[in-house]
C-alpha cells in the first residue's frame, strides 16, 4: 500500500467526519456528542473507501459493511453515553447517501419522461442502473445501521422478561 492510498484514506476520513459533525450540528446534537459523531462518521466512511480501493468489495457491499460499523458503534456509544442511538447513527450515515448517483438516476428518468430520450435505449439503461444502484446503497445503509439495534434490542427485552 502506497502513501497515496493512506493519504486518500485520511482525506476521506477527515471530510466524512466533518460532514457527519455538520449533520449532527444541524440536528441539534449536544456538543458533548459531536466528537463521537465525527469519529463514527470518519471511521465508517474510511472503512467503505478502503474496502472499495482495495478491490475487496463494491460500493453496495462496502456501504453495507460501513453502515454495520455505524450501527454497532452508535449502539455502543449510545449505551455508554445514555442517549438515543439515532444521535450517532443518523449524522454518521448521511454522508454515505449517494447524492450524485441519485441525481444521475433522476435526471435520466426526467429525460425519458420528457421525451428527449424516448428513442434512446442507452439512456433508459443508464437511468435504470443508476436508480437500482442508488436503491441498493440506500438499502445497505438502512440494513447496516438498523440491524445491530434490532438484534440487541431483542436481547434487552428478553433480559427484562418481555417479548
Q: How would you characterize the overall build of this protein?
A:
This protein is an all-alpha fold and 163 residues long. 80% of the residues lie in helices and 0% in strands. The longest helix is centred in the C-terminal third of the chain and has 39 residues, at 121-159. The mean pLDDT is 90.
List keywords for this structure.
163 residues; mainly alpha; 6 helices; 80% helix; globular
Helices and strands: which structural class? mainly alpha
Strand content: under 5%
Taking pLDDT < 50 over at least 5 consecutive residues as the criterion, the unreliable ranges are none
Q: What is the N-to-C succession of helices and strands?
A: HHHHHH
Instruction: Count the beta strands.
Output: 0
- Residues in helix, %: over 70%
Shape: globular
> In angstroms, what is the radius of gyration?
18 Å
The biggest beta sheet reads: none
Number of helices: 6
